[in-house]
Every structure is written in structure tokens, then in C-alpha cells.
Write a structure and sequence with these properties.
Layout (H helix, E strand, L loop, with lengths): L4 E6 L5 H11 L3 E7 H7 L2 H7 L5 E8 L3 H12 L5 E5 L4 H10 L4 E5 L7 H6 L6 H14 L4 E3 L5 H8 L4 E4 L18 H7 L3 E4 L1 H4 L4 H19 L1
Helix pairs in contact: 1-3, 1-11, 4-5, 7-8
Length: about 240
């Protein structure tokens, strides 16, 4: 039985060596490691090889591409050679941009970001998106799936509604996941790992509660164990 938890550890590290060390500590316990925009811009393709190491862990390249379709296609094609398991594109870039990414990187799961978990309903109004947040997320989710996205990023608070909107085959990825007692930091719409999984999430993005711990490996192991206990209790 695979004991790796459905967690993508966000490797928001200050340098390549730290990112690789964190990845080495957590990969026995989690299915995925996530490389964000800052780390990728600082180190480029080298960071993917460094965090993947010999383990072959799934790499989630969270670049949140958002540009005209031809540029999104070029960017997706450029990173596809790195064999990321997952690559993000902003759903707000539109159907054509999502389709372009899907066509340019056929062996990578294109994941559309709906509404960033740092945004509240008031924030949406400020940037001109019709709310409430849950409605905006559902609209963007439907658009993205129709354009060929096989995964969606949404907050834990919208997972159940999005699952009802797009069906069981789409991978739902939830940032804004915080174990009980953790600081929310810059996330506005959060839930515990257990709440997110019960709502229908497939992959939980967790960063600082793991990487900020004195022993990231032990923190990842503890979260993986709690998820196994929850699943065992549910039968």
C-alpha cells in the first residue's frame, strides 16, 4: 500500500540547496513537491532536477501562466521537456490560452487556477470580477474544463461546489490548507487537511506548516499519518 499522502509540499525556499533538502526530507511521505514562480525564476530548469532527485517524485510546476495564447503555448512547450506532472495556467487567461497549453504540453496535466486563495469577495469586486467568490470559481472552473484542463486549483471552501460542477474525473487541488493551530499567513480562504479531503479535494498544497517546522520530514510524516487515520475511520 502506498503510504504517500496526497500532499504537494510547496518548496518556497530561499535557495536551491534548501529546496532540494526539503524535497529529500518530505518525499518518503508525500506524493508531490511544488515549485513556485519565485524559485523557478531564480534557478530555472535546474531546480526541477534538483528537487526531483532520484526519488522520481511528481513535480508540480506552479507557474500560473497568464498571457496571450501563443505565448502560453510557447511557455508550456518550453517547460514540458522538464516532465512536470502538473503545470498551472490562470483560468482567467481564457479558453484559448488553456487550449494552447493543453496542446503544447500533451504529456503534462494542465491545471487551471480559478480564484487565488489570497483573494476575498471584496478583492474580487476591486478587480472587476463578479462575485461572490464561489460563483466566480464555478464559472472559471467550467470554462477551464471545457477548454481541456484536467485539473483545477480552488480553495477548500469551494471544492464541493466545483466537484459538483465538473464531475469526478477532474483533479481538484487545494491551497489554503492549514493543519489545526497553524497560522493562516496570507491565505484568506482556508481549511484543515481533513476538511479539504472530506469536501472532495484530491491534492492538498501545504507549505510553511511543513517546511517551517524544525523537522520538515517529521511534519510531513505526521500529516500523512493523520490522513491515513482519517481514511481508515471512514472505511
Amino acid at each position: 500500500m502506498n503510504n504517500q499522502a496526497p500532499i504537494a509540499v510547496a518548496l518556497d525556499a530561499p535557495d536551491l540547496e534548501t529546496a532540494a533538502r526539503w524535497a529529500g526530507l518530505v518525499t518518503p511521505h508525500v506524493s508531490t513537491v511544488k515549485i513556485g514562480l519565485e524559485l523557478y525564476l531564480r534557478y530555472g530548469p535546474e531546480v526541477v532536477a534538483s528537487v526531483r532527485g532520484a526519488s522520481g517524485v511528481q513535480v508540480f510546476l506552479d507557474l500560473k501562466l497568464h498571457d496571450i495564447p501563443v505565448t502560453v503555448a510557447g511557455a508550456a512547450r518550453a517547460v514540458a521537456r522538464l516532465r512536470p506532472g502538473l503545470l498551472t495556467v490562470h483560468a482567467a487567461a481564457g479558453s484559448a490560452a488553456i487550449k494552447a497549453a493543453v496542446q503544447a504540453a500533451p504529456d503534462t496535466k494542465i491545471v487551471a487556477v480559478t480564484v487565488l486563495t489570497s483573494l476575498s469577495g471584496a478583492d474580487l469586486g476591486g478587480i472587476g470580477l463578479a462575485g461572490p467568490v464561489s460563483d466566480a470559481v464555478r464559472r472559471l472552473a467550467g470554462l477551464a474544463v471545457r477548454a481541456g484542463a484536467l485539473g483545477l486549483v480552488c480553495s477548500p471552501q469551494e471544492v464541493a461546489a466545483v466537484r459538483a460542477e465538473v464531475g469526478p474525473e477532474i483533479t481538484l487541488i487545494t491551497p489554503g490548507v492549514r493543519p489545526v493551530g497553524s497560522d493562516a499567513h496570507d491565505q484568506a480562504r482556508i481549511a484543515t487537511p481533513e476538511e479539504a479531503l472530506r469536501a472532495g479535494a484530491d491534492l492538498l498544497v501545504i507549505g510553511r506548516p511543513i517546511t517551517g517546522a524544525a523537522d520538515p520530514g517529521a511534519a510531513a510524516a505526521a500529516l500523512a499519518a493523520s490522513i491515513r487515520r482519517m481514511r481508515a475511520a471512514r472505511g
